[in-house]
Amino acid sequence: MNDSHSKPLKDQNALVTGSSSGIGAAIARKLAQHGAAVCVNYRSSADCADDVVRSIVAEGGHAFAAGADVSDESAVQGLFSECVARFGRLDIVVANAGIQRDAPLEQMTLEQWRAVIDVNLTGYFLSAREALRLFAKQEINPALSRAAGKIIFISSVHELIPWAGHANYAAAKGGIMQLTKSMAQEVASRRIRVNAIAPGAIRTDINRQAWEGPDALSKLLKLIPYNRIGEVDDVAEAAAWLASDAADYVVGTTLFVDGGMVLYPGFASGG
Ligand code: BGC
């Protein structure tokens, strides 16, 4: 295989927000394996971000870590400036940083509501707006990619599936769905591709209580027709593909990587 096949993101530069752990870390590593240099963004876990950078460098890739809270406008602007200073240009931005602050609606505090909306929705807007401002200034370089830039939002099956006890999270993810489509429609003519990935239940720390232990796992598997929990690489593979020219005609869509979780598993029999 020549390099454009084995390393379809060769010489491209990527920023992955919230990539010191979980799905973000896997995406950072996968993009690097496919040839991209990666900025590993973190908010508070500098040590974990450094570990991700080290693992990328150990495999012969290029990466650096940069701290920034994605809900803070000037911090996001600083993060993009740092990427431009280090890389010269950015080709791929993955908005991934996300949190959960679960509570029944009656007890949900404004603080819990705001924390989730600020990071999971406003953070995506801020990252996407800076990406757009940068991509709009950059020349298309066909040797790198047919697009001027690619934005990937990591959404969730909960952009579609309502989630009792997690209304702040579901509201943010529903917002991401329309942010994806509206932004894609707005910027496609400038050859900027905006898409989203909606992961289902992926084995990470954020949902540990949903899969740790046989009882929790068997309950969870009832929601997944494919009958296995997702792994971070399932999502990372999809991100690498969406970022590549193999997906050049994929614009404004959400790719569900969920083992069929959105297929109304309760209807597999009856109905
Ligand atoms: C949430 C997880 C949850 C999964 C499926 C994700 O977006 O972060 O906690 O397990 O959706 O419900």
From TrEMBL:
It is an enzyme of class 1 (oxidoreductase). Keywords: Oxidoreductase. The keyword Aminoacyl-tRNA synthetase does not apply. Its EC number is 1.1.1.47. One of its GO terms (molecular function) is glucose 1-dehydrogenase [NAD(P)+] activity. One of its GO terms (biological process) is monocarboxylic acid metabolic process. Residues 12-205 form the Ketoreductase domain. It comes from the Bacteria. NCBIfam families: PRK07231.1, PRK12826.1-2. Belongs to the short-chain dehydrogenases/reductases (SDR) family. This is Glucose 1-dehydrogenase. The lineage of its organism: Bacteria, Pseudomonadati, Pseudomonadota, Betaproteobacteria, Burkholderiales.
